[in-house]
Amino acid sequence: MQGASAARMIAAMRSVRSLVAGVLLGALVLAGAGLAQTGRPAGSLDVVIRHGTVLDGSGRAGFIADVGVRGGYVVAVGDLGAAKAATEIEARGLYVAPGFINIHSHAAANALPTAVNMLTQGVTTEIINADGQSPPDVERQMASLGAAGLAVNVGGYVGFNSAWQSVVGAADRRPGPDEIEKMRAVITTGLTQGAWGVSAGLDYKPAYFARTQEVIDVVSVARNWRTNFTNHDRLTPESHFSSRVGIEETITIGTQTGLVPVVTHMKVQGHEQGTASDRLASIHAASTRGAYAAADAYPYLAGQSSLGALIVPGWAQEGGRMAMLQRFADPATRARIVTEAEEAMTARFGGPKGVYLVRTQQELTDVMKQMQGGPGETVLKILEQGDPGAILRFGIEADIIAILKDPVTSMACDCGATTDTRVHPRFYGSFPRVLGRYVREQHIMTWEEAIRKSTSLPAATIGMVDRGLIRVGMAADITAFDPLTVIDHSTYEEPALPSEGIRFVLVNGQIAFADGQATGVRAGRPLARTSRMPSRPSGPETPGRRLSIKGSASDRSIDISVVRSTADGAATGRATFGATPTQASITVDTIGFIQTAGSGWTSFTGLTSASSTGGARAITVIVDEQDPNSPANVTVVVMLEGAPPWSGTMPAKGVSVIK
Prior knowledge:
By secondary structure, the protein is of the alpha/beta class.
């Protein structure tokens, strides 16, 4: 925001913050330069973002346009000079992008009502329960978080680690067939409750003890959900702590279970540094074989975990903390643990110089001097007092650049909403660091590609259909930033220094962050996935894709004729849905964006005609011909703003579906 008028608007907005908090802001995208969309708001808008350069998340070239928001959705993108709005944002000189989607989040529940550290990064959606940890009831978790208020949107995975621990326990033993079925039931329940995929952290005990085939046996229950398997790769002493082997295991589990394997917070560690291109090639090879695979990464050369989790050998952690401490107390066993811990440190983190203790802000090498012991013995002495967080240095710059710029890598910070100030700097700096350091300064990718990797790519990877793009009918999660100043400032020594350059953030159409300050608005929502939201690739779409379907589904007449006219997904056409006992007929006369997965799944957003719904309303439609649970049918899902979702099926045989 620039100029005196902008300053006056901010002052006015802050003075009526409580009023703004109650307004549902929407987003309607009008046609930008070279785009055929012409949807216009029927009445005044909630918000207009004027004169910004729109990077809409698709990867296409940015263009100068206004963005109109109403009712929580994008309703116009283009020249809105005559439009009236309750709030106007001057974005001249700023880039206007979809809100960033963090698909690997460790958000603290008590920080989600404010989420200031995430809003300062431009993040509007977090997917929690990463690394395999989730509560037994994901639906209840989301309801509880929503009831407390959310500054950002939140969804959750269902965790393999939690399923394993709840059934098998902390011992290194083989589960029986009935126990496999119990774990499968945990996964099924989580997916039924709206989980966005299956997460695992096979490097963490006791899930570390699960054999690859056992993981496959459990996770394969998710096959018909067409979702993703995201895994913190398992590095074992047997493989000499090989990132290659760990990544290949993730890909194997995903492809053999029919899920999209996601190599989460991808890295190449220790003695294998410099081989990122080979590791990425294995991901692309899986996709070439017909099993799409993906990755996510953060822009740092060190990770964070508890000190003992990845250093103390797995066998020594079997049975939990008390059992581990008993092993520490036996001199012979302790000596073996010390030796193997040092081997792990050397292979993974370059030795003790690769370990930094977050809470006390000390290098392990300095603690070794204080305790007058070797690296392994010092780690055990620290663990006897507790298990503090540790920064673990693992990589080289060339590898992280190769990983970040790869087309299938989403940006994800392995962080989340927090109020803690002694954490990894990624909690405060990840997304601005990518934009400032790697795009503006090093030019490793274009602005458009960096935004795609932070928005529509992670959305598609986990199956979202209504976020990640600034197009007509999409949810109004929007981030505006200054490309000249956006950068991180957090460091390992001062990790809570806020980033700069993120100027405005809208969450579901409401202004959550404005010119350096969180507004206190809690417009975030719990987000749930259904089986008709498949994980899929993201990228340029094939022009000319047409969806034409006419028939009746569950006694509702359906007539759809839409066509994707350009490679950026812009679409034209019309759709009508007949009346039901609880809903009047609907006419969609502004088509926003068509997404596809293979030849039998299509989704599009748009706006209804004002006459058919009492005012133009956002709508998302899914036409699914590939549901493995209903292979003989075509399923149509209609998600209309302000109305419960509707779905119906029609027999595939005899129904006119033209592609």
